[in-house]
Amino acid sequence: MLDIQKIRADFPILSQTVNGKPLVYFDNGATSQKPQVVIDAEVKYYNEINANIHRGVHTLSQLATDAYEVARGKVKDHINAKFAHEVLFTSGTTHGINLVANGFASILKPGDEVVVSSLEHHSNIVPWQMLCEKTGAVLKVIPIDENGELIISEFDALLSDKTKIVTVNHISNALGVINPIQYIIDRAHAVGAAVLIDGAQAVPHLKPDVQELDCDFYAFSGHKMCGPTGTGILYGKETWLNKLPPYQGGGEMIKEVTFEKTTYADLPHKFEAGTPNIAGGIVLGTAIDYLNEIGFDKIHEYENELLEHATKRLNEIEGIRIYGNTKNKASVVSFNIDGIHPYDIGSIIDKLGIAVRTGHHCAQPIMNFFCIPGTIRASFSFYNTKEEIDAMVDAVKKAQTMLS
Ligand code: 7TS
C-alpha cells in the first residue's frame, strides 16, 4: 500500500490553495507535478556543476557530462533498451516524433503508406501528414468504435507491403484507452513496417520494456513523469538510428566539418545537435529514480482504484457520458454533461480549486468522431486521493445545477 499522505508531502505545490480552496490537481495528462527531490536536483545542478557538456576538459564540464550520461544510463535501464546510445535526449514527445518523421522523408517513396490511429494526439498526426505531403506517401488511419477502442480488424486490413511505418500511442491522452500495442507491433513487423509508439501518456503509469515490445521507436516526455518541462526521450533501435539522417545540423553532432563534406558523430550525438537541456536531462534521471522508489506496481494498483472510484462516483450524475469505455484504461476520465459545454463546467470547478482540462485535448479527430466540441478530462496521478475525486464530483454537480 502507498502512504499517500507521505507522498503528497513530497510535492510542495499540492498544499496550496487556488481561488481560496485546496488545490485539486487533475490535469496530470497535461503535465505532472514535481516532487521536492526533483526541484532540489535542478537547483543543485546550477549551484554546483553547471557547465556545457561533451566539450570541456575542465572539471565542471566533465562533472556535468558524467551526470548527463549517468541519466541516459538510468533511462536505458528504465525502459530496458539494449544500448545507452539508443536513448536520445529530446525536448519532449513532439520533438521525438518529428525527428523520426523527418528521417523517414529520405526513406519513403510516392505510394508508400504510413498508418496512424484515430486516437492520436496532434503531435502524432501532423508530422506524418507533413511527411506524406513531402514524399507523396499516403496516410492511412485505424478507425475507432463507440467505446473509443481501435477496430483491430480494420488495422489488419490496412496493412500491406506498402506500409512503411505504423505509429500509434500506447495510451490515448484524450480517453485513457490503452492500445493493444504488442499486437500492433507484431502485425506491422510481419509486413516489414517499422513501429513508433508514442508513450507520452504511458510512462507516468507504467514501465515500458522496449526490447520485449520490440518496437522500433518509443517517444515520451519527461514532464509528464515528474521530470522538468522541456525534457523527453526518443528510444530508437540502433539499426534504425544508424539508417536515419540527422534531424538538425550543428555543434556536437559532427565528426569532421569541411566546406566540401561533413561527417556525422556516432550515436547518440548524431541526433543531439547544440546545447541540450542539460539540467533537465540530469533531473529526469532523478524523477525516474523517484518513481521507481515508489514502484510502478503500486502506482498501477492505486491509480486503478482511483479510476474505479471516479467512474463510479461520476456515474451518479444525471446526464453524464464518459468517453472511452474499455477494460484496459489508464487513470483518465473524459466526460460531458448533457446540454452543458465542457468549458463552462471547467471554468466553474476551477473557481472551486479543481484543475481539469477541457476542450479537444489536441485530439480533434476523436472529438469529431463523437460529434462533440470537447470533453472535461480528469487525469489522475498516484498523489491524488479519493477525497479529491469526491470534491470534484460535488463541484461538477454544483456546476450542473448552476448551468441548467
Ligand atoms: N502524445 C501524447 C499522447 C500526448 O498526450 C502529448 C501531450 C504529446 C504527444 C505531446 O507531448 P509534448 O510533451 O511534446 O507536448 N499531451 C497533452 C495533453 O493531453 N494535455 O496537454 C498536453
UniProtKB/TrEMBL annotation:
Keywords of this protein's UniProt record, alphabetized? Answer: Lyase, Pyridoxal phosphate, Transferase
Keyword set includes Transmembrane: no
Q: Which reaction does it catalyse?
A: (sulfur carrier)-H + L-cysteine = (sulfur carrier)-SH + L-alanine
Q: Which residues form the Aminotransferase class V domain?
A: 24-391
Its domain of life reads: Bacteria
GO biological process terms held by the UniProt record: cysteine metabolic process
Name the needed cofactors.
pyridoxal 5'-phosphate
Q: Which Gene3D superfamilies match?
A: Aspartate Aminotransferase, domain 1, Type I PLP-dependent aspartate aminotransferase-like (Major domain)
Which GO terms label this protein's molecular function in UniProt?
cysteine desulfurase activity; lyase activity; pyridoxal phosphate binding
Could you tell me the EC number(s) of this protein?
A: 2.8.1.7
Question: What function does the entry list?
Answer: Catalyzes the removal of elemental sulfur and selenium atoms from L-cysteine, L-cystine, L-selenocysteine, and L-selenocystine to produce L-alanine.
Spell out the family assignment given in the record's similarity comment. Belongs to the class-V pyridoxal-phosphate-dependent aminotransferase family. Csd subfamily.
The protein depicted here goes by the name Cysteine desulfurase
The species is: Flavobacterium phragmitis
